[in-house]
Structures
1.
Amino acid sequence: MYKRQFVNDYIDGVFGNRVPTWPDIYTWLRGSPLSGKGPVILAHIRNRITNGPTWYDIPAVDVYKKYLEVTKAGLIAPEDCYFSLMAPTEKTLFQGEVIHRQGKLELYYSTIVKPMRAALQEGGHNVSGLTALRLLKGYLNVNSYEWLWHLLDTYDDHVIEFSTYSIECGMLKGFNTIYWEVRLGY
């Protein structure tokens, strides 16, 4: 599965628990929580390009301004943007990338409390087999763990990118894990 395809599936909720997400700036402007009242709602400008740029922790009321800034500067094409609310990064317990390949579980993970790219870059660890299984069982709640295995069984040789939090979060009740990507393994 390639990035543009899995982004559409992610937005449609095919991969399970996710944060609220909008496919383009027009949908964002029609349906996002832009109210300036109450706590600041943070958003994330994401991309449809492998290893492309992303912008975190943008106040929802400033997303359109930031979108114009980055697209006019040529940092990303308008059609490559999609938008999500920020997950509760400050509640991060565990996050990474996992694949079940040729009967072997492989996990690249971090427990650093930062958005995933930064956390993995700063303190990523590779483990496999029983160690990987033990870590996943220890951090993911029952619903999240069972769904992860559904994804691993459904998408053979695909990397599942996830973040696990100390609280339930996302669009589905009873989950403490967001599944960010399902992409062909490498």
2.
Amino acid sequence: MSTLLLRLAAPMQSWGASSRFKKLTTEREPTKSGVIGLVAAALGRERNADIGDLSSLKFGVRIDQQGVLLRDYHTAHNPRNTKLAFISDRYYLCDAVFVVGLESDDESLLDEIKKALESPRFPLYLGRRSCPPTGPIVLGISQVSITEAFKMQDWQAQNWYMRKRSHEQNIDLEIVVDAPFNTPHAFVKRDLPISFNDEFRRYRFRSTTSDLQGVSVLNPEWSEPVDELFEGDAGGKATEHDPFLALEVSDVSFESRN
């Protein structure tokens, strides 16, 4: 088996799985239907094309940087009738970074997907057209399972986020991976794409498991804590500077000027 790893990062992402009417929600991690749609666009497949080979890929997500949920109060007006407006609530994930894995025994298919993502036929976006990806998507192909690939991959969070957690040498990352329906503690969502045809989109249920401490990675921005001033030492050498020395009064004699 082999696994293709992708890095999905952008100022905003939105991965809807249960959006209805005027409330367009987002999941907390990329959906399989959204990523398969991204792959199909890169391959240049039309919406009515067969995607069975893509849907059969084992899918998983490593959450490298959770991001922040944003609610957009969205209005759209009809230019012919300014009194009419369509109002909706649209939700996004801001500053999130994910590592997505696609596992298959067919390495030639993964290689085809890799090349397509590096030179896509159609524009790529992360959930919605207003969310283009930042930087290269492809991380590479490894001849290991999806879980092992997650363990081998370096932390992909943004540098400022790594520095924010510089006091932690090892970072535990949550992973969400496809699993059989009879797996204990698995949860089910309607997120397996069958057809992207505009006239009749079809999805089935898929089962996944989540592990909050599934992978531990090294933080490249980690730094050793410095001992408290005056009470400890830094690098085995005591601190010599004492700011209170400037406040000490030297022996000075004052003469009376009566």
